[in-house]
């Protein structure tokens, strides 16, 4: 696992994306029924809730929350006012249809007034700098963790997870689709993604290998037991995963495959299992390379005899117990004892 400093960097980048409702500390004092309701005063809201009025059409019942104080089901913890140091519970959403009149589904997936109406100062309610939109967006039909986004409505989460859009203002170039996930869950984020632990809860991030390509402005960095597509420079030291060794070993029956008897060999005009000097390997008499199948070459062994060999560039081109060695200027798979 990366150092706590790396976790802190990621937490700072993700903190404005909201805290998930499955936080470790319950907030039973907050009435689930009142969050998001209209109000004129605190008395109009449920137990533990307050009424925000400045910049909130019809008033908004909510309550303060944090990374350790969860919001009720159906809501997320987000900055709603110009003072981003205070977070409140807000109704979670995927589109404007999930919000009451006068509110839109903003770029971090919560219902807030449109740009200019979230606070007395007219700042963006999402505080992530990407801006809200009043245009409904239909989420894709399948999970798209790691795709570019401007709003949570453009993202589809796997299973029953809450979709999120980690914005460009929070350090994710062109935004990236994510979801609130359980770091203790097995494959919570589905294939091709992993649940990244942060101080605001788990966040689904695209997984990668040395052979896969992350989006422009993202790099594949080792993190914990795997590797993730993270914004360039997010981690002070990004160590790319090592390439997966290419395994091009012959399939059973092919030239130079391991064998015990002739019946196991299937390629060539006269397949045989050659085992005179060591472990058995498949070969065949041949007239030209075409007789020897994929990666096979027809070589002269002297005395007017020609047999199939398997060409190679590395040990992983040869069956187990055989090596790639040079014979007369050609690299072929043979028992190590036959290499000169």
Largest sheet: 4 strands, antiparallel
Helix content: under 10%
Q: Oligomeric form of this entry?
A: single chain
Mean pLDDT: 77
- In DSSP terms (H or I, runs of 4 or more residues), the helix count works out at 1
From the alpha-carbon coordinates, what is the Rg to the nearest angstrom? Answer: 30 Å
Contiguous uncertain segments of 5+ residues: 1-28, 116-135
Distance between the termini: 46 Å
Overall, the morphology is rod-shaped
Number of strands: 20
How much of the polypeptide forms β-strand, as a percent range?
25-35%
- Main β-sheet, spatial strand arrangement: 8-9-11-10
**Which sequence of SSEs, written as H and E, runs from N to C?**
HEEEEEEEEEEEEEEEEEEEE
Helix- and strand-based class? Answer: mainly beta
Write the layout of secondary structure elements.
Layout: H1 4-14, E1 50-52, E2 60-62, E3 64-65, E4 75-78, E5 87-91, E6 104-105, E7 111-112, E8 162-166, E9 176-181, E10 193-196, E11 202-206, E12 218-223, E13 226-231, E14 258-259, E15 270-274, E16 280-285, E17 296-302, E18 305-310, E19 323-327, E20 330-334
Antiparallel strand pairs: 1-2, 3-5, 4-5, 6-7, 8-9, 9-11, 10-11, 12-13, 14-16, 15-16, 17-18, 19-20
Summarize this structure briefly.
With 340 residues, the chain is mainly beta. It contains one helix and 20 strands. The strands form eight sheets. The chain has a four-stranded antiparallel sheet with strand order 8-9-11-10, with no helix packed on it. Strands 3-5-4 form a three-stranded antiparallel sheet, with no helix packed on it. Strands 14-16-15 form a three-stranded antiparallel sheet, with no helix packed on it.
């Amino acid at each position: 696992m990366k150092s706590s400093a790396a976790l802190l960097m990621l937490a700072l980048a993700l903190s404005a994306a909201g805290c998930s409702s499955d936080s470790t500390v319950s907030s039973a004092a907050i009435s689930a029924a009142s969050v998001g309701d209209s109000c004129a005063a605190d008395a109009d809201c449920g137990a533990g809730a307050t009424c925000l009025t400045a910049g909130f059409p019809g008033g908004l019942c909510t309550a303060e929350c944090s990374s350790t104080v969860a919001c009720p089901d159906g809501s997320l913890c987000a900055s709603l006012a110009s003072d981003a140091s205070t977070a409140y519970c807000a109704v979670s959403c995927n589109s404007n249809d999930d919000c009451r009149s006068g509110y839109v589904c903003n770029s971090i997936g919560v219902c807030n007034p449109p740009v200019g109406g979230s606070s007395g100062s007219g700042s963006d309610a999402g505080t992530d700098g990407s801006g809200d939109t009043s245009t409904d967006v239909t989420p894709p039909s399948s999970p798209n963790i790691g795709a570019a986004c401007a709003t949570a409505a453009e993202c589809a989460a796997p299973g029953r997870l809450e979709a999120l859009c980690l914005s460009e203002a929070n350090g994710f170039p062109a935004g990236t689709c994510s979801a609130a996930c359980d770091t203790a869950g097995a494959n919570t984020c589905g294939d091709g993604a992993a649940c990244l632990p942060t101080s605001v809860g788990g966040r689904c991030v695209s997984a990668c290998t040395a052979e896969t390509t992350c989006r422009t402005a993202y790099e594949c960095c080792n993190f914990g037991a795997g590797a993730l597509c993270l914004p360039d420079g997010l981690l002070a030291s990004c160590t790319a995963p090592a390439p997966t060794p290419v395994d091009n070993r012959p399939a059973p029956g092919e030239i130079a495959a391991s064998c015990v008897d002739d019946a196991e060999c299937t390629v060539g005009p006269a397949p045989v299992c050659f085992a005179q000097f060591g472990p058995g390997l498949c070969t065949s008499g041949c007239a030209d390379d075409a007789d020897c199948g994929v990666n096979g070459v027809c070589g002269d062994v002297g005395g007017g005899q020609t047999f199939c060999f398997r060409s190679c560039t590395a040990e992983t081109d040869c069956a187990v117990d055989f090596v790639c060695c040079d014979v007369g200027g050609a690299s072929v798979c043979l028992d190590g004892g036959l290499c000169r």
